[in-house]
Amino acid sequence: MVPGASPARQVAQRVLMRVFEEDAYADRTFASEARELDPRDRHFAQRLAYGATQRVRTLDHVIQELGGRAVSSMDPPVRAAVRLGAYELGFMGGVPARASVNEAVELVKASTARRAAGFANAVLRRVSEGIRDLVAALPESTPHEAALKHSYPDWIAETWWEEWGPQEVLALMQAQNEPPETVVRVIGTGEARVVDHIDPEELEQGLVWPQSRGSQLAGEAVGVEPGDRVLDLCAAPGGKTSQLAERAAEVVAVEIHPGRARELEVNIRRLGAKNVTVVNADARELPPELTGFDRVLVDAPCSGLGVLAGRPDLRWRSRPLPELQGELLEVAAGRVKPGGSITYSVCTIAEAENQAVVDAAVLVQVDRLAIDHSLVETWPHYEHPHRKGTLLTLPNRHRTSGFFIARLLRIG
Questions:
Q1: CATH code for residues 182-410
Q2: Quick one: average pLDDT of 120-146?
Q3: Residue 123 phi, psi dihedral angles, 5° rounding
Q4: What is the CATH number of domain 7-138?
Q5: Predicted structure pTM score
Q6: Which residues are catalytic?
Q7: Cα 44 → chain centroid
Q8: Which of 192, 230, 313, 391 has a Cα-to-Cα distance from 101 of 20 to 30 A?
Q9: What is the pLDDT of residue 351?
Q10: Could you count the other beta carbons within 10 Å of the beta carbon of residue 213?
Q11: Does the structure show a pLDDT above 70 at 76?
Q12: Residue 3, pLDDT score
């Protein structure tokens, strides 16, 4: 660390620069950059870096309106420092405004753009005087207005607005701008435990696994019975795979990316699941012998619109993937035996990737697939309000990650 700004803010600045200048992933970047921080500084740095990443659209608007300069005209170290300072001033409490400004200026002084320290100081002093009032006064009566005020891309706001209506959308946006609850699944018991922090020793020993209540619900919804052969088509990093393995006789876990497949192997070994075979392959090109499964889990790649609280940069890189999801369901229909079931789960809350994908699969394979409505009998409080027979967790209603879950039966 260099002298000047606090170590936590230096880490946050590097995270912001790598995310927005190098298109790096926030969670992976933070993990590498924050390794030497003590727990208290690590918590502060994460809150600051993640919060500024989430709120960057609103912050940039405020900086331009109050500071008189577009952030696009600033050098990268200055841009990151000013964004961090603005986030502290507008959305974090407990730090005097003068200290927040000074710390951001110190970040600039320690950078290659040190001559811009006076400029950053002037901009942030103007921001400190008006950011909270300006943000509070921003309207939110249209999708575009709400997207600016709560810092989302327009397309997400427009999608939610059409499907859920303004009141639900505003609550959803606010919920996904707050830090998510920290939950672990206790291995061997199926308990979803809400914790203040994850014990690294328990994690290393395979006693717990970080997994939201929504994600754990998706794993439970597969309905594995003792003796079942189960195919997990998109398995990494392995949380749901290990859930399935606790009851199944055999689990075949498929992962297309070599690095993630290796990570899956490590995680499965750590969690003690000895009945799992990892296959590094494209799920759409599996060997013909991988068939006749009792159950298949399609935890498909998606836009991730239900997990934006925990993945701060995802809203800026997200895109829907309904075509791929449909292809994976078709694969599952060909690999499950007659009378078996397919569980389709995605951590998103948009119709195009949820009920539309399931309905299309049932329509195309009308003589083979049908929705299993018994899923709702087990979890009636999670029934999707717009699609009977399926489940949906919503961050604003259920205080967990957003997951759509449907179970299909192969009837022929």
A1: 3.40.50.150
A2: 98
A3: -60, -45
A4: 1.10.940.10
A5: 0.94
A6: 347
A7: 20
A8: 313
A9: 97
A10: 18
A11: yes
A12: 62
